[in-house]
Design goal:
- The chain has 93 residues and is mostly helical.
- The protein has one domain.
- Helices cover 70% and strands 0% of the residues.
- It contains 6 helices and no strands.
- Helix 2 packs antiparallel against helix 3, helix 2 runs parallel beside helix 5 and helix 4 crosses helix 5.
- 15% of the residues are buried.
Length: 93
């Protein structure tokens, strides 16, 4: 049996964007990125270019991002911060 051909994996790794933040940093800041992306996706990409690059390259992290964003949209608010501004808590509560 011939060894598996790893050229496709090697090519994919060599094409990785040098500013890619990687899974660790992306997961750590994903909730912040999602909040910002819900309001302004272009601004999120400008403020967090490494996370944006990683989401284009990593299917697993992109699925997490899409799921969190879908949850925000399903809740009827653009982001938790937006919800707080639209529905402030009464003083003393």
């Amino acid at each position: 049996m011939a060894p598996p051909n790893n050229w496709s994996t090697l090519r994919r790794l060599l094409r990785t964007d040098p500013c890619d933040a990687g899974c660790g940093e992306t997961v750590e800041l994903l909730h912040v990125f999602v909040d910002l992306a819900a309001i302004d996706p272009a601004q999120a990409a400008r403020h967090y270019p490494g996370i944006s690059a990683h989401l284009r390259a990593c299917g697993s992290c992109a699925l997490d991002f899409e799921g969190l964003l879908a949850q925000l949209h399903a809740s009827g608010c653009r982001s938790p911060r937006t919800r707080e501004r639209l529905n402030p808590r009464p003083l003393g509560s």
